[in-house]
Batch of 4 targets.
Target 1
Amino acid sequence: MNTSGNGIAQTHETDALDLSTMTKHEMPYGIDAIAEIRMSTPADYPAIIRMGEAADMGTLDGFEDTLVATHLSGGIAAFCRLRIYDGIAHVNPIVVDESLRGHGVGAALMKAARERYGELRFVARGYAVGFYKFIGCAPVEWDEIAPEVASDCDDCEKRDECQPLPMKYPIENEERAITTSLD
């Protein structure tokens, strides 16, 4: 078991975040219902598809770059699918089981994705913008989002209701610079 500088325990064998060995004070955002954050496997795909459909994300496919958070009791609690365009990871989408929303699972997944892939870009649904700003994300221009991701909003009949906002989750040094410039 290796512990990175942020106190998150990681195993090299599975490349998974093992939260079960941490005290509540060591856990990111106190998410005591999560066993680990790891890369998805084909066995996870049916649950990811069901969760995506239940969250009104349509029928998803292509899970090669998808992180999952698993319940202590087994099963998928949340997932974060990433798409790589021009060397930049785009979150498309992140879905957290409704019963666990507001308990830090999404924040832990985003942090794990950023640690693995570097800067993340994505389009936030309007109601989630506050959450993303809280964890350190910042709005960007639409042209900073890959057209393959941005086009999901262009054709969406719920665009006015959703009020999508293009955002990025910068790497830590850039995040500090953004925070300093806003102070």
Target 2
Amino acid sequence: MSAIRLLVLGAVRQHGRAHGYQVRNDLEFWGAHEWSNAKPGSIYHALKQMAKQELLVAHEIAPSTVGGPPRTEYEITEKGTEEFFALLRESLTAYDQKPDVLSAALGFLVDLERAEAVRLLEERVRVIEQWRTAVTESYTPEEGPGQLGHIGEIMNFWVTSADTGARWTRGLIERIRGGAYTFAGEGEPFVGVLAEGAENPYATQERHPGDAR
């Protein structure tokens, strides 16, 4: 799964209605251009593609509130909302994915209810432990991965990564159970998007033709 679909859908959903440059600005504010494939071209392409797929609706061109040329504004549809939550749930539980997918999911974790977030993360731990058991039973020599020479370091790396991932996930579960963060239905959520015209201290300043659309 690519993180870009989850990121773009989530950013549009948080705004309610947003033009492409706003979405790009938010993702750069989150640092997503550093840890994912959320580059300007990918963002604008995703917006257009998901509008074609009816996950987003592209409204008629509207003048920008901060001056400059008119821009197309996007709004998430019911189908898009269903896709957003499906991607979010899958990203929180699946272990066989790139780190940017989990990072994107963590950015929208509080869009879920607290109990569901805990349940999904518990499932993530179960999947990690299941993977670890299967791998170590099938591929590790009785004398340990060192018997495979330096190739055994591959096994050491993956097993250590699994253990670290499970430990981190358990810690997050405990923090959530302890009352950390404001989840859906609990009150005013944390606002992670920039208001129209707000300065972004993390903007790349890289120009792209899509910025004006």
Target 3
Amino acid sequence: MTVLRRLARPMLAAPLVTGGLRTLRRPEAAAEAAGPVVRAVGKRIPALAGDPLQLVRVTGAVQATAGLLLATGRAPRLAALTLAATLVPTSLATHAFWTVEDPEERARQRAHFLTDLSALGGLLIAAADTHGKPSLAYRSRHALDHRHPVRAVRRPVEAAAARTAHHAKAVTASLTGSN
């Protein structure tokens, strides 16, 4: 792991781990804030309707666990994606600045929301970071080549043959004076 990743992953994960642990210890305040969001989502997606206190506890546990995985570099892409998925509803529930009337509190909630938004961007970058290795899409496209060595050899040979034929045609044309 490069030095940048060794430093950046724990820094990105730290607020999510501490927030998840804080929510696990004292879920009541977060459940109160999450209540309206849980009810609104529950109306549209009945499977997600439930006890806000229980959902907040689960979210806290997921954030603490995924944050630790990201910080230690274990399954970092999956951990970052999981954290990103939990951060969106959490931010919408706890930092809904557009619903606050007091200008000072609205500014404070907007700042927290934008901080969460920047963390979301960092998590999405971390989720896409392949650590210099080919992505899953690349590996799946080239999986056939590894299972069929003949195909893996045939492609470069065909390309070399095409280049040779092109050069031979150009040399023949120049010797005969035709285009």
Target 4
Amino acid sequence: MNHRIRALHTDTTITVYQAYAPELGVPAARTGRFPAAWKRDRMTWIKPSFLWMMYRCGWATKEGQQTVLALEITREGFDWALRHACLSHYVGGLHADHDAWKRELRRSPARVQWDPERDLHLNALPYRSLQLGLSGEASRSFADEWTVSITDVTDRAREIHGLVRNGDDEAAARLLPEERPYPAGDELLSHLRP
């Protein structure tokens, strides 16, 4: 299936990734909570795909994205966000019309974008990876209720990147998180698949 969520998950949690400047990411990982400086009122994007996060943050080298966090959140919260999400772009046939999509987007506390999944060399793969944008109620719940643990995985990201640069893809692949298809059926995704 072209649009499928693949993630590290347990019966009760799913791991997503974000990257921050060290002054925000390091305290979050140390305390396991987002600090007060983390803006709960703005849109925040979470990514279940480790390699898509590496593509986005340049293996933790981009300005303001040098600290990569693995956030274990409740599946209950993640599923709620999917249920209340809207696609970030208009799709004819899925939405009644452009105006209906705009109205839905304005009232949705979450939005979904499907981007090409990435391989170890950050090349696009022929299937899509989910990004989930959270705002308002969803953003606040993510920060203060859904988050079970926050782990700094920057060193792991740099180790994997070093192995890739040295041509040892096999060793690099062994260090990747085990991302399996996430059990999100049609009830959660039918309104989000273009």
